[in-house]
Write a structure and sequence with these properties.
Beta-Lactamase, alpha+beta, 34% helix, 146 residues, five-stranded antiparallel sheet
Length: 146
């Protein structure tokens, strides 16, 4: 089993086990996602290609499923392209939907695995997520060699 140290504030450790063995990028990413779900940072978290193909996923939520997140992620790629063309708006990397109950669905666009990928997740009301998400993004970039 891979172990990631997310107690370090700015950078995750590498993708290695306690025994120093290399693990697959998907295992490392899903372990970090699972850790986030267990800590309550996310209800569900998925990583998709820009075409909506799943790369990793953790968590179950009857209201927000992987298929719904994938569909929205694909549409948001098109929205992102359009917005970036408007007035040279460059660098759009996160889109947040927040309900009246303060629950959030967040889509973070990342360059990894030689392409744009989308980290999509649901955040419970009044739960912080940015710091942990930034560390997860760093891990995804390390795993994806970007």
């Amino acid at each position: 089993m891979l172990k990631l140290d997310f107690n370090r504030p700015n950078k995750p450790k590498g993708i290695t086990s306690n025994k120093g063995e290399e693990g697959s990028p998907q295992e490392a990413i899903e372990e970090a996602m699972n850790h986030a779900v267990q800590l309550g940072h996310y209800e569900v978290v998925c990583l998709f290609t820009e075409d909506g193909l799943p790369l990793a996923e953790v968590g179950e939520n009857n209201e927000i499923g992987r298929d719904l997140l994938a569909e929205v992620a694909v549409h948001l790629q098109k929205v992102r392209e359009t917005i970036c063309q408007l007035d040279n708006f460059v660098g759009l990397n996160e889109i947040i939907f927040e309900s009246h109950s303060l629950r959030k669905i967040v889509f973070r666009i990342i360059r990894a695995f030689g392409q744009n990928v989308v980290l999509a997740f649901a955040v419970p009301a009044k739960q912080s997520y940015k710091s942990f998400t930034n560390r997860l993004v760093k891990l995804i970039k390390i795993a994806g060699n970007d």
